Task: inverse folding
């Protein structure tokens, strides 16, 4: 094995094996993630179409009973009013949970509509203004749309939960053969190294998911200087 040519051949074989293993790992990881998203979609529809419709029917029935009461039945009327308020709150919570699990607009109208809905739904929440800038995008398959949507969704959630930001800007553009998603906030910032080492949730989980599609995540931040999250995804991730 002292022959340099044999060593080069062995090195090339090992390198090719590592590359095959890497491709297989990413393929399996994407398959697992697809199953998770399919399950989210099923549970979201069950909540919306099953639990949500039952709560709507219950609310209408309580209204009917309330309307049939005599004015002097004040105790019963107050009790029904409380039950109606509880029913309305539970219905709204159920719809919100369904949207968080898998917003129907992503499957029905696609990524651009889903991002506009996401920005509107976060705008003004906790006092932060959310701005969205979308460039011209090529036709994207469902998996890329889901990865980009989840990245933007988690970035907004992090900004609301940890950054105390007053302004968040989301930009999505296609440059060459890559998709560029940037989320900037003017919040209190963080330690990028510690944030990326956070494991399966938050920024660390976001980075691992992007890797499955050949993408990468970069974070620039400093205490008091906000945070810039840059996600890069190749159009061809196979």
Result:
């Amino acid at each position: 094995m002292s022959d340099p040519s044999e060593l080069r051949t062995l090195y090339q074989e090992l390198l090719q094996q590592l590359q095959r293993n890497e491709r297989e790992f990413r393929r399996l990881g994407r398959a697992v993630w697809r199953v998770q998203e399919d399950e989210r979609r099923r549970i979201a529809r069950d909540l919306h179409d099953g639990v949500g419709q039952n709560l709507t029917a219950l609310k209408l029935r309580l209204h009917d009973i309330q309307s049939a009461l005599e004015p002097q039945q004040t105790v019963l009327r107050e009790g029904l009013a409380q039950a109606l308020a509880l029913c309305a709150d539970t219905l709204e919570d159920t719809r919100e949970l369904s949207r968080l699990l898998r917003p129907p607009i992503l499957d029905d109208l696609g990524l651009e509509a889903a991002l506009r809905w996401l920005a509107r739904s976060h705008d003004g929440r906790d006092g932060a203004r959310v701005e969205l800038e979308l460039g011209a995008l090529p036709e994207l398959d469902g998996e890329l749309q889901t990865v980009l949507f989840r990245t933007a969704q988690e970035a907004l959630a992090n900004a609301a939960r940890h950054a105390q930001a007053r302004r968040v800007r989301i930009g999505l553009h296609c440059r060459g053969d890559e998709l560029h998603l940037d989320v900037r906030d003017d919040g209190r910032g963080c330690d990028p190294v510690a944030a990326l080492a956070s494991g399966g949730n938050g920024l660390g989980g976001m980075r691992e998911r992007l890797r499955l599609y050949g993408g990468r995540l970069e974070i620039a931040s400093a205490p008091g200087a906000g945070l810039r999250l840059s996600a890069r995804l190749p159009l061809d991730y196979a």
In short: Helices lie at 4-68, 74-101, 104-109, 111-122, 142-163, 192-196, 202-212. The mean pLDDT is 89. Residues 65 and 80 are 8 Å apart (CA to CA).
